[in-house]
C-alpha cells in the first residue's frame, strides 16, 4: 500500500459548459472556459511550479512562481490567475522562466528555517518539493538566516502547532479559513518583510475564533502549520480512504498510517460529501480508539451489583445465548429484543435486525433514530412516499433562499454549514427558525434575512402560519401543484391554512415572533428563487414532530420547491449512519427499504431468503420495551453501540426499565452508562477496524475501510454472527460485502449496490437500481415516489408540556461542535479543551430575577427530575428559554426531559421541557446516588479474584 | 415515585394523542384511521392491554378512540 496522493490542479474546476482549446508546451488541451492556464496545464500533464495556489482555493497570484509565456503577449503572467482563451499558445518553461523561478524560490528558502534542500529529510514540506521542481539545488544565502519575525511557537491547539518562522505569507491558510471554512479567524499582520500570519487579533489559536477544522493546516505548504502527530510520529507511509464515523455529513478521509499506527486523518478531495474539507471531530478526534478506558475483553456477571468478570469470547457468547433462550422459554418469544446503532455500519445494523427477526423470532428491534429522526420517516413517507432527504449537498450551490428550521449546522453538521456559508457569501439568503440565536443568524459576512426565535413547541404553528401567507397572498406555484400533487388534498389544505386562526397575526403571540417577520419570511421563501429547507432535531423531537415534518413538506410542494437542484426538503441527520440504520430495517414495523412487516408479499421474500418463518406483527419500540420491562413482559435486550441511559429521555424511567430486565447485553467500546445495568459486555470495534458502509444525510452510501485489526479481536458484525450461531440461527459471511449483496438482493432501492461498484464510483446515492444504475442525487424529479405529492393538514396543538408557576421556563437541548452525542468518543479526546462540561444557557433577565451569576452552580428541575450544572448567561437564548447540551454523564441533562413524545412515532420531546432554575450549592441526590452506583457498577474483578 | 410503564392509562393517553392528529384530517373515518395506526405500530401486547382495559370498563378514552379500540376488539373476536 502507498500514500494516496491527490493531484493538486492549482485552481478550482470551472463549472462552464463552453469548451476552449489552447496549446501548452506544444500539446493541444481542451478545457471549460474560465479554467486557469495552470489547471489546463495540469490536465495536460504539465505541472507548473506553484506555492500560493491550491485547487481548494481561488487563485491569489502572490508567489510569482507559476509564471508562463504566452505567444504574442508581453511579460510573464502568473498561470494561476490567467484564464485560458481559444487558440493561446503557452510555454511553461524557457531559460527566462527557469531563471526567474529559481530566483524567487531561493529567496523563499533562504527566509525559511530548513537545514537542507533534501525533501526526504523534512516532514511534509511542499516548499522543498517545489524547490526541487524548479531545480534549486543550492542556496547561496545559507541556511542559518534567522527570521526577523520570530514570535515563538504556538502550541495552544491540542492537535496542531504554528511556527511563524516558517510562514512565507502565501495566505493559503487565511484563504482556507475564510473561503473554505468561513470562520475568518486568521489575518496577515505587519508589512513587507515583517508580515506574518496571526490568529485572531494576535491571540493564540486556542484563544482565537478558530474552530480547529484543520483547513489551514492542510493548505500550508511550508509546515508552518503542522499536525503535532506528524511532528511526533513522522511522515505517514501509506493511506486508506474511509468515511468519518461522527456526523451525518459523511466526510471522506485519507487515514494516513505509519506501519499499523494512524498518524493523521486528512480530508479527501474526492469525497463527494465534503470535497476535501472536514471539522475538528473527524479530522482530529479519533484518539478514543486507543483510550485507556477502552474495553478489549468480553465480560459477564450474574447481577449488576457484582463486579465484571473477564471471560473468553466463547464463554460470553454461549452465556448470552443460554440466557436469551432461558428467558424466551420462561416468558415467551416476545420477551427479548435488540437495538441497532446509527454509529455502526449498514451491514452490522442489517445483521442485528436480522438476528432479532430471524433468530429471536420477533420484531422487537429499534434504533436510536427512534429518538431523533423517526418523525422524518413518518412525515415524509406520508407526503412524498419515502423517508429521505430529497437533495445532494451540492444542490445548495444553486439555492437562493435557505429556510433553516430547528437545526444548528455550524455545530452539528459543520462541513455542510461551511458549504451553506459559501453560498450565503455569494448572495443567497437565509431564514432561521430557532429559539436560539445560532451561528448562522450572524457570523462574519453573513446576516440572516430573518431570525424567527420561536418559543419551543410552536413549530407547527409557525410553519402553518408561513403557509397561510403563501396561500392567501397567492404565492403558490399552482402549475406545479396541479401537475405534481393531489389537487383535492391541496384544496383541503389550502382552505385550512387560509383560515384566519392560522394567520401570523392570530398565532404571533403563541409563537413569540412578530407577525410581520413571519409574513416577510414567507414571502421571501416563496418568491426568492430556489428555496431549500434544511431541518434538524429541533423539528422532530416534539410531540408534534411528525406533523411539523409534514408541514415542511407542504411548504415545499406548495411553492414548487421540489424535484430539481437547488430546492428540496433536507433533514440533517445527526449521527453518521442514521439514514443507513433506518434504511436497513431497524424499526420494529418495517423491513429494509421501509416495507411494513405485515405486507405478505414482502415478508415472503425474506422468509424465502432467510429460511425461517417471520412474525407479521410490529414489535416494540425502545420506549415501549422499557415500559414492557417495568410491566414484566420484556426481559432481555441486546444493544449494539447505543447508550440509551444517557441519550434517551427521562433517565430514571430508562434506569427502571433496564433494572427490570434479566439479561442486558451491551456491545460498545467503553463501559457506557447503559453498561452499568448490563449483565454481559461485548467489546466493540471502531470504524478504523472494520469494513462496511455508512449512509449520510444525502442518501450517499460510502465505504468504511479497515485500516487496522480490531483491537478487541472481532468486528461488530462478527460478534452478531457468533451470537446468532449460538442461538441456533446460522449466519455465515466471509466479508461485509456479502452482507451488502444480501441487502441488495432483498431491498429494491439498493438493488444495484455492491462494494465493487462503490469502489469504482466512490459513492452511490440510493435509489440505485436498473433505472438509476449510478444512483439518484435528486429525488422526486418528474413524479413523487408515491405518485402525486400529498398535502396533509397540520393543526397546531400545543404540547401537554406547559410552563406554569412551578416550572416557568422552557428547556431545549442540543449539542456543540467539539462534542458528539453522548460524548463517549469525543470526551475521550483532547476535544475536551473546548467543552469539558455541559452548561445551562440562560438569558440575563431570567438570571437576574433568580440571583444567578455567570458560572455559578444552578439546579435545573422539571417534573421528571433534577440535576445541577453551571450557568452561562447569554442572550443567545430568549427570555423564558434555557438551553443545555447532553454530552456529559455527570450532568445527565436527560434526567429532566420527560416521557412526552411524538404522537406518531414516540420520538421523545427533548426540545421542550418546562423547568425551573435556581441557585444551587451542590449536586442533587440523583447525581450523588448515580455517581456512587456508576463507580460500583464499573468494577472489574482482577484476574486473581476471578479465579 | 412510580415509573411509567405500558400501564393502561399511559396507553390510553398515547392513543388519544394519536387521535388528535386524525381528528383534524378531512374525509377520513377517525376510529378506523386510529385503529389502523395502532395495528401498524403497536406490538400485540400493547394492543391486548388496551383492548382488555376497554373490555373491563376502562375510562379516559376520547370518544373516537374508544370506538377505535372497540374496532380492535371486534377484529380480535373474528
Ligand atoms: S483550523 Fe480552521 S478555523 Fe482554525 S484557523 Fe485553521 S482554517 Fe480557520
Ligand atoms: S463530524 Fe461530520 S462534518 Fe465533521 S468530519 Fe465527520 S462527517 Fe465531516
Ligand atoms: S501559484 Fe500562481 S502566483 Fe503563486
Concise structural overview:
The complex is a heterodimer of chains A (947) and B (78). By secondary structure, chain A is an alpha/beta fold. Chain A contains 30 helices and 36 strands.
Radius of gyration of chain A: 29 Å
Tell me the strand order in the biggest sheet of chain A. Answer: 13-12-27-26-25-14-15
Cα separation of the termini of chain A? 44 Å
Percent range of helical residues of chain A? 25-40%
Cα end-to-end separation of chain B: 41 Å
Give the total of domains of chain B: 1
Provide the succession of SSEs of chain B. Answer: HHHH
What is the tally of helical segments of chain A?
30
Tell me which protein chains meet in the greatest interface and how many residues each side has: A-B, 36 and 25 residues
Oligomeric state of the chains? heterodimer
How is the topology of this model organized?
The complex is a heterodimer of chains A (947) and B (78).
Chain A: E1 19-24, E2 27-32, H1 37-43, E3 69-70, E4 89-91, H2 95-110, H3 126-133, E5 160-162, H4 172-181, E6 186-189, E7 196-199, H5 215-219, E8 225-227, H6 228-233, E9 238-243, E10 252-258, E11 261-267, H7 280-284, E12 299-300, E13 309-310, H8 313-331, E14 336-340, H9 346-360, E15 365-367, H10 374-383, E16 401-405, H11 409-412, H12 414-425, E17 429-433, E18 442-443, E19 446-447, E20 450-452, H13 459-472, H14 478-484, H15 487-498, H16 504-511, H17 515-527, E21 531-535, H18 537-540, H19 545-558, E22 569-571, H20 578-583, E23 590-591, E24 595-596, H21 600-610, H22 622-631, E25 636-640, H23 644-647, H24 651-659, E26 663-668, E27 680-683, E28 692-695, E29 700-704, H25 716-727, H26 736-746, H27 755-761, E30 763-765, E31 809-814, E32 839-842, H28 844-850, E33 857-861, E34 866-873, E35 881-885, E36 913-919, H29 925-937, H30 943-946
Parallel strand pairs in A: 1-4, 14-15, 14-25, 16-17, 16-21, 17-20, 21-22, 25-26, 26-27, 31-35, 32-34
Antiparallel strand pairs in A: 1-2, 3-4, 5-8, 6-7, 9-10, 10-11, 12-13, 12-27, 18-19, 23-24, 28-29, 29-30, 31-36, 32-35, 33-34, 33-36
Helix pairs in contact in A: 2-3, 8-25, 9-25, 9-26, 10-19, 13-16, 13-17, 13-19, 16-17, 22-24
Chain B: H1 8-22, H2 30-41, H3 44-55, H4 63-77
The structure holds iron/sulfur cluster (2 copies) and FE2/S2 (inorganic) cluster.
